[in-house]
Specification:
The chain is globular, with a radius of gyration of 27 Å. The protein is α/β, with parallel strands linked by helices. Helix 18 (461-477) runs parallel beside helix 23 (603-624). The chain is 56% helix and 11% strand.
């Protein structure tokens, strides 16, 4: 029976309401339903009509009291498939049973497998140190064993992810096909939380708005700028009036160029409020505060701090979904329609109990990718070239989405306003969280979609260093939530329920930042003659471990292409298939090797950078309680960063100094190892020059076109 015939049978067998709903699905979702029904019919030796009848019976049963359980697709392609298999008496092979168990218990498998691998690595390393250490009881031995723990956890997390990705199939998010436009019941507001600091910020904000307007405008889609002024020591400064007037003028110019979308553009601005802890006037809670106040506004609470500068309040009436994008981010064409179709599907709509999402998702996040024209330097090509490779295949497996059933929210995505506000509003303390996106995504449940948002990545190492410093500080400010069970907000003690796997993901973020420090400590321990033999080998292995992510990524890419569905046959198609497979795998390995080389060269600098960020975050959280919300936008950092040779040396001076001191220490303690260690120390000592050379723009590409927002058309 062909798929078209099975689709017709499904359409005829469904009741009118379900049949109309099924007809509104996109073709790929229909195909997923058809394939699932066909496989169930074959394993149960029954007809397609019998399979659908059993699914409809289960969906209309009294115990099906949740919204998603009343949809027949929940039993075909959702978690209710096992119940339908039991009702049909399907014969399931042991291989399929094992795969289903792993899929249903993905978080538990990940935690157990990671614990086993990490314990094995640590035990092996301890045994090696005990048998080869010159002095078993010493401060250096204790330090090296402590350093081995985060590195072992990092490697175990990576290996566990790769192992589970082999067993679990990519998860496809079903969706509606809003080809005729988004219905009024799923109205979307596309918002851009922006900090306005100068004229360039105004131009970037309006250019981002216009770029996304040109690609995703349509019925029931509203585009809204949510703006704040930069921090100041007083509530108003002299440049505020000029900036807001300039923003009004730019908005009116966009409306004049796109008069058909005049009613779809809204500008909301917030005035500064006093942050008594830091002694500054700033937008309340920055981006988190803007989105929370905007959500309250959509739910009818008019007590917020927003002032309507352009557009009509009526345009925001009946908004159900909010899609948030950062400055300089451009969503792919028809991305709003696709994301809203995913979130509106019955299997994805969030079901909330006790302020927790028990099924579905409150947030759907697009995948971040780098447009190749934005990679204008060797540094950006090496660091972010892999994002270009991943963009070739939107079906490549995503570990968090496929294995854990949740995705790490990065700040860009579409969310259900009511569900998001119910799960997040009032759950997190004020003036304490910088990287709030991860916690919000964990509370509201996030999935990743095969939709891409194109962003401008740092062009040079200095800009990248500053962004990494902000990220490390933000992730370590979230570390108290590893053990916290309650969240304090407005003096009220409220339950703060994070799943165990969410706490493991927080730990994963911390380990990623600490792992390079562990590599440096282990290499120094080996070079300083603390081992009777094999010290240089241990140091080399520790440095090569940094290549693990790139190696596993290339293996994952090859495995994905190997399992790719072949829709055609013939010699030319097979030749094209193998060429594509080898080219993608080779490019991933090449980019991975370059990324590893760059990681090794910048290892000493990254160690100094991460140490500074961790110490600052710890001091601010536990002692001063100030500057916890210190933040600068990526675009403002890129514009203010000087990229001459002197600036590289001034900002990265700690790395050459550390390399020289460590080389002298090795020469004094273990001169026999100087020959093997000298090349690495030379690389670290020359890292400012290498970084300067890699950060220079490629020939023929103008440097002033810094981001995609600068190209208005």
């Amino acid at each position: 029976m062909e798929h078209a015939e099975i689709g017709a049978v499904i359409q005829r067998s469904l009741p009118p309401e379900e049949g109309q709903e099924y007809a509104a699905f996109c073709e790929k979702t229909k195909e997923a339903y058809i394939v699932a029904a066909k496989r169930l019919a074959l394993s149960a030796h029954k007809s397609i009509e019998a399979v659908l009848s059993a699914a409809l019976t289960l969906s209309s049963a009294p115990e099906a009291n949740l919204g998603f359980e009343r949809h027949f697709g929940y039993y075909l392609v959702g978690l209710g498939r096992r119940r339908l298999q039991g009702a049909l008496n399907c014969k399931i092979t042991w291989c399929n049973r094992f795969t289903q168990c792993v899929e249903n218990a993905g978080p538990r498998c990940y935690i157990i497998l990671s614990a086993i691998i990490a314990s094995t690595i640590v035990a092996t390393f301890i045994a090696f140190v005990v048998t080869h250490a010159v002095r078993l009881v010493s401060w250096s031995t204790v330090l090296i064993l402590l350093a081995a723990v985060p590195l072992s956890l990092w490697v175990s997390f990576l290996l566990s992810q790769s192992a589970l990705l082999v067993l679990i199939k990519p998860r496809y998010l079903c969706r509606y096909d809003f080809i005729d436009g988004i219905p009024a019941t799923f109205k979307v507001a596309v918002v851009f939380p922006i900090i306005i600091n100068n004229h360039a910020d105004v131009e970037e904000a309006t250019a981002t708005l216009e770029a996304n307007l040109a690609r995703n405008a349509g019925a029931n889609v509203v585009f809204c700028l949510l703006t704040d002024f930069a921090d100041a020591t007083m509530q108003t400064v002299s440049s505020d009036s000029y900036l807001i007037e300039k923003l009004d003028i730019e908005i009116r110019m966009i409306v004049s160029r796109h008069p058909e979308y005049a009613k779809s553009i809204v500008l909301l601005h917030r005035d500064r409020t006093l942050n008594a802890v830091d002694g500054l006037w700033m937008g309340w809670e920055r981006k988190r505060g803007k989105l929370l106040e905007f959500g309250r506004l959509l739910r009818g609470d008019l007590r917020g701090n927003f002032t309507l500068r352009h557009g009509e309040w009526f345009s925001l009436r009946d908004v159900r979904f909010v899609l948030t994008l950062d400055a300089g981010s451009v969503l792919q064409p028809d991305g709003v329609r696709t994301l809203s179709g995913i979130l509106a599907h019955p299997l994805n709509l969030p079901v909330i109990r006790e302020n927790r999402v028990v099924s579905g998702f409150a947030i759907i996040s697009p995948r971040s990718a780098a447009a190749r024209p934005l990679l204008r330097s060797p540094f950006s090509r090496i660091m972010y070239g892999k994002a270009v490779i991943e963009a070739v295949s939107v079906e490549i497996k995503a570990f968090h989405n496929d294995c854990l059933g949740r995705h790490l929210y990065g700040g860009c995505g579409i969310y259900d306003v009511n569900a998001f506000q119910q799960c997040v509003d009032g759950r997190l303390p004020e003036n304490a969280i910088l990287s709030h996106d991860h916690l919000e995504g964990m509370l509201a449940s996030t999935a990743s979609a095969d939709v891409f948002v194109f962003e401008a990545f740092p062009e040079n190492p200095l800009t990248w260093r500053k962004r990494q410093h902000r990220w490390i500080r933000g992730d370590f400010q979230v570390s108290p939530w590893l053990f916290r069970r309650y969240g304090n907000t407005e003096g009220v003690r409220m339950p703060f329920s994070l799943a165990v796997i969410d706490r493991v993901l927080i730990l994963t973020n911390l380990v990623v930042h600490i792992a390079p420090l562990s590599v440096l400590v282990i290499a120094m321990y080996a070079w300083m003659g603390a081992l009777r033999r094999g010290g240089n080998v241990v140091a080399l292995v520790a440095l090569v471990v940094l290549y693990t992510p790139s190696l596993l990524a290339s293996v994952s890419m090859s495995a994905h292409l190997r399992n790719e569905k072949r829709s055609e046959s013939g010699g030319l198609y097979l030749l094209h298939y193998w060429r594509r497979r080898l080219r993608a795998a080779g490019a991933t390995i090449l980019y991975g090797a370059g990324n590893w080389w760059l990681s090794v060269v910048l290892l000493a600098d990254y160690a100094c950078l991460a140490s500074d960020a961790i110490v600052r975050a710890s001091y601010r959280m536990n002692v001063s309680r100030k500057d916890l919300l210190e933040w600068s936008t990526s675009s403002s950092v890129a514009r203010s960063t000087k990229t001459d040779v002197l600036s590289y040396w001034m900002q990265m001076l700690k790395a050459p100094g550390l390399a020289v001191m460590l080389l002298i220490l090795v020469w004094l303690v273990a001169p026999a190892n100087v020959v093997c260690a000298a090349p690495w120390f030379c690389a670290w000592a020359s890292s400012p020059i290498i970084a300067y050379w890699l950060g220079k723009p490629l020939v023929g590409r103008p440097r002033n076109s810094r981001n995609i927002g600068s190209r208005r058309r």
